Amino acid sequence: MQGAVGPARLLNDPRTRDALLWYVVAQSDLSYPVSGWVKSQGKGRRSGAALGGVMRTRTYGQEDVWRLTTRYPRAAHTLAHGVPALECLFPSSARGAGNRRSRSSAAPPPSTSPTASS
Cα–Cα distance between 5 and 69 in angstroms, integer? Predict the structure, then answer.
């Protein structure tokens, strides 16, 4: 992704910049749902043990969170199902975040300065 975002910031041609940024959008729109689908098919996700397992690893681990997953297995089970669900829904949730109008063509925000009233 950085291989596309970096040049997009440096290039002056708007068509090239748009093409590179659309590549990033397409990459995200494909990678998150595929990752969520693969995670949802795993035996550890279905049993709810996945979150505790990830929290025990050296790379992603967090001992306090791991303790919570062992203390509250029902919550860990819900979270283990929630992460892939959110990843699968990422493209639809990200659609409302942007604004199709460029900032320069958008109407200026209303004035927030107090008006003198007598």
Answer: 37
Alpha helices in the chain (DSSP H): 2-10, 14-41, 43-47, 50-55, 63-71, 73-94
Please state, as a whole number, how many other Cβ atoms lie within 10 Å of the Cβ of residue 52: 20
What would the pLDDT profile of 10-60 be if each residue is shown by its tens digit? 777 888 888 888 888 888 888 888 988 888 888 877 777 788 888 888 888
Query: Can you tell me the distance from the alpha carbon of 108 to that of 92, in angstroms, rounded to the nearest whole number?
Result: 28
pLDDT for the residue 77: 86
CA angle 52, 58, 62 (to 5 degrees): 50
Task: Supply 59's token pair.
Answer: 């790379």
55's CB contacts (< 8 A; 6+ apart) are: 61, 62, 63, 65, 66, 69
What pTM was estimated for this model as a whole? Answer: 0.56
What count of residues does the chain have?
118
| Separation of first and last alpha carbons in the chain | 57
